[in-house]
Amino acid sequence: MTADAHDVTIDGIISAETYEKLATVNKALNCDEPLSEWEELYLGFDLGTTNLKLVAFNEAGQPVHAVLFDSRSSLRDGVIVDYIAAIEGMRKCLRTLKKRLGCNDITAVGAAAYPPGISQRTAQVCANAVEALGLTCMGLYEEPVVAATALGMQNGAIIDIGGGTTGIAVVQDGEVVYSADEPTGGTHVTLVLAGALGISFDEAEKLKRNSTAHKKIFNITRPVFEKMGVIARDHLAKSGFLEKERVIVVGGGANIEGASEVISQVLETKAILAPFSLIVTSVGIAECLWRRCHGGHNK
Questions:
Q1: 85-106 pLDDT, tens digit each
Q2: Model pTM greater than 0.85?
Q3: Where do the H-state alpha helices sit in the chain?
């Protein structure tokens, strides 16, 4: 087990097996070859504000591959605002997956997820986009549900920092009992950087993703993470779970050195950044779909 895996598992948040699953999917993002054999594929489409991600599991519930592309022109705050562009982005993900698998003809079903607090009609658009690719959409899940599944969490609080929003969910006995979603996410971090440094949005986004620059820029971005912490604190207090549950942070928007520490200070309780936080929700979509198709049994 790696040191990072040990650091997370000793807090009782996730198991070493879960860590390795996430690590495998993360590896697949930069791999041209499939990581497992397959006969059937279970495809999880993650329509994020900043990125479109596609994760494929096989019939045994093992990760096969993963693909990531930019989605900023088609989604806002986790909601599709340009349906055609979103479908084209997802189609690009699917084409890339097929190319990496070396197979144009695949047997597959799909699933998607949506942020908390939106209407069922708006959520259904995500499923419609999957169907537009010629796939049967067999799962449409709330994002906190799939994040909890990916992490193997039975009890705890999840703070999901996406591109456009900060989501909060409380999980009890494997079920989400409270969830909310508010504006302020990774895009807001980029906008603050761009304004403070007098650079373009794209330059600021590139700087934000450069881990070697995190210490230099953190004092600029700190207030945004403090606001995320306030959003989480207020909702956890409203739900009655503040300081009563372990807290884990997921989402690519939190992937800046020091972010989880600032959130912890605001909450006055430790908030642990999930390993490979960018792909937690994506993995959870594919895993929920696989479980549904296989009677809900674990691997």
A1: 889 999 999 999 999 999 988 9
A2: yes
A3: 3-9, 16-28, 83-101, 120-131, 143-151, 186-197, 201-208, 214-239, 259-267, 280-293
